[in-house]
Design brief:
Blueprint (H helix, E strand, L loop, with lengths): L2 E5 L2 H12 L7 E5 L6 H12 L14 E4 L6 E5 L15 H6 L1 E5 L12 E7 L5 E6 L10
Parallel strand pairs: 2-5, 2-6, 4-5
Antiparallel strand pairs: 1-7, 3-4, 6-7
Helix pairs in contact: 1-2
The structure holds adenosine-5'-diphosphate and magnesium ion (MG).
């Protein structure tokens, strides 16, 4: 599921994410970029919904960088790198075995020091009020390396 999508509410964004979630298999990595308030966490909530996970637990991780949600078709691992200047997925407490069997969704992937090969890049742009433009791109993203 790639391309550009327009959503007009948080619910829309969640529904789009849920649709994408249905297509994901174990080991998928999603890189969610966009400004503060763009809707990255809302998108992650939609992913959880689509995977059949109770979405009430999905919030912006405050002190923990990595949150794991189970109980769905696949485990969802939610990573928020906002508070870091640079990060390496291997060094922030992301268990590679858990990552391999679940879906990893990363907010602020710009902080990553290395590419994640095969990742799905999702860019959310604020179009004013409740309008958002989401670009989903399954091609490898080289821009995330060496910031
Ligand atoms: P981020 O994680 O990118 O900082 P959040 O998901 O926490 O952003 O917050 C997004 C905010 O924008 C929420 O308050 C949500 O209700 C609001 N919002 C308004 N329209 C949309 C939309 N189309 N998609 C997603 N969120 C939206
Ligand atoms: Mg967030």
């Amino acid at each position: 599921m790639t391309g550009t999508f327009h959503t007009h509410s948080e619910d829309d964004t969640r529904a789009l994410a849920a649709e994408l979630a249905a297509t994901l298999t174990a080991g998928a990595v999603l890189l969610l970029s966009g400004d503060l308030g763009a809707g990255k966490t809302a998108f992650v909530r939609g992913l959880a919904e689509g995977l059949g996970i109770d979405t009430r637990e999905v919030t912006s991780p405050t002190f923990t960088l990595v949150h794991e949600y189970r109980g769905g078709r696949l485990p969802l691992i939610h990573v928020d790198l906002y508070r870091l200047n640079s990060a390496d997925l291997d060094e922030i407490g992301l268990d590679p075995d858990v990552a391999a069997e679940g879906v990893v969704a990363v907010e602020w992937p710009e902080r990553l020091v290395r590419d994640v090969r095969g990742a799905i890049a999702i860019r959310i742009e604020d179009g004013g009020e409740d309008e958002r433009r989401l670009t989903i791109d399954a091609a490898p993203v080289s821009d995330y390396s060496m910031r």
